[in-house]
Design goal:
The chain is α+β, with helices and mostly antiparallel strands and about 375 residues long. It is about 20% helix and about 30% strand. A hairpin with an 8-residue loop joins strand 3 and strand 4.
């Protein structure tokens, strides 16, 4: 099949021009609703005091705190970024997406046989309404329409930079403060699933999301994609390259979440602050390919991975998906090599259990795909 040679937003590096005939279109013809963004992520942890210490060191603000809940926020106006509830073990519960209009909740409830429930009195800052769903991977997914927005807080200002002969800063030095990177907002969440195809179609059909980039296993493109970077459909308004990313794997769960900060100096100085306090960097600093973000990944005390990012791509609805082979070398344009910790490649009893369960279960994981995933992790 001959393709027209033309530039696209996906051109160059590890990306191809687009889909081949008959491949997944990356969007639904008639979705139930179109969510506007992620609202927040929900976690449970046994020690809220320890969680709050890390949250402040990482750069979150505290929107609300009770004896059993901790609501974290960024500096931008809007909804909180995260809620951590007291629980017996540390675990990711699920994502909450923001509905564009209150009427979308009624439409979603009718289509899924669910109820619209009131968030007032639940501890959610600003209250509002929600519909609770379950995706094909088994993750609880909440779609919310918030009552009141959180007010904007003071931000870290980007540094004034000199570029070649463009001298914007004279008679002044650069001294970015050694302090936490101040989180602006929640950007995206990445999930691993054994039922990638079913989960992908559910998010496109039910929540109206659209794919920015597909990845496939080398030599197995005819079997379809095994990872998708998925954005919200806001029409001609350009939005984050991905709000949700999912990939096929033997596990079923949270991989990481990402939070926008001001610029590269905020990432770097905030990283030095975290390092001095004994936290573990998972991977960074670098710049991604899919999404183009400057990135830096860290582990919290409960081993959850969180990312600081800046300068990400923004796509409007008219951009079609890119297609590229799945590989470790395709994760970054520059930066240190991806670590085994970031890739989840270190052998452990839990990972062995995941593989055994996946191979025995009714899902999309089989020996050929496991070998393809292993090859991608080493390529």
């Amino acid at each position: 099949m001959t393709r027209t040679a033309h530039q696209t937003a996906h051109q160059d590096l590890h990306s191809e021009q687009g889909a081949l005939r008959g491949e997944h279109p990356g969007r639904s013809r008639n979705p139930v609703i179109k969510v506007a963004d992620l609202a927040w992520l929900e976690f449970e942890k046994p020690d809220l005091d320890r969680a709050e210490v890390f949250a402040r060191d990482f750069g979150f603000g505290v929107a609300a705190r009770t004896g059993h809940e901790l609501w974290l926020r960024g500096t931008l106006a809007g909804s909180p970024c995260m809620v951590i509830r007291e629980g017996r073990t540390s675990r990711f519960v699920g994502p909450a997406f923001r509905a564009a209009e209150r009427a979308d909740l009624d439409r979603l409830a009718r289509a899924t046989g669910s109820d619209v429930r009131d968030l007032d009195g639940t501890g959610a800052p600003g209250g509002g309404s929600a519909v609770d769903l379950l995706d094909p991977s088994g993750f609880p997914v909440r779609v919310v329409h918030c009552g009141k927005e959180l007010r904007e807080l003071p931000e870290q200002r980007p540094l004034l930079l000199n570029f070649g002969t463009d001298h914007r800063r004279t008679n002044a030095t650069q001294r970015p403060p050694r302090e936490p990177s101040r989180i602006q907002r929640l950007g995206h969440v990445v999930l691993e699933t054994r039922v990638f195809g079913r989960a992908l179609d559910w998010y496109l059909d039910t929540l109206g999301m659209i794919v920015s980039d597909f990845l496939f296993l080398d030599g197995q493109r005819e079997r379809g994609p095994t990872m998708a970077f998925i954005r919200c459909d806001r029409g001609t308004l350009a939005v984050d390259h991905h709000t949700l990313a999912m990939h096929l794997g033997p596990g079923n769960g949270y991989v990481h979440s990402a939070y926008q900060v001001t610029d590269l100096d905020s990432i770097a100085a905030g990283g030095e602050y975290l390092n001095e306090r004994g936290y573990k960097r998972s991977w960074g600093i670098g710049r991604h390919i899919q999404g183009s973000q400057l990135f830096d990944y860290w582990r919290d005390p409960d081993r959850f991975m969180l990312e600081h990012f800046a300068d990400g791509d923004l796509f409007s609805c008219d951009l079609e998906p890119g297609w590229a082979p799945m590989s470790t070398s395709g994760l970054a344009q520059w930066g240190p090599p991806a670590t085994r910790d970031f890739l989840g490649a270190s052998p452990s009893p839990a990972r062995v259990r995941d593989v055994v369960q996946a191979l025995r279960g009714d899902n999309e994981v089989d020996p050929a795909r496991l070998l393809g995933l292993l090859k991608a992790a080493n390529s």
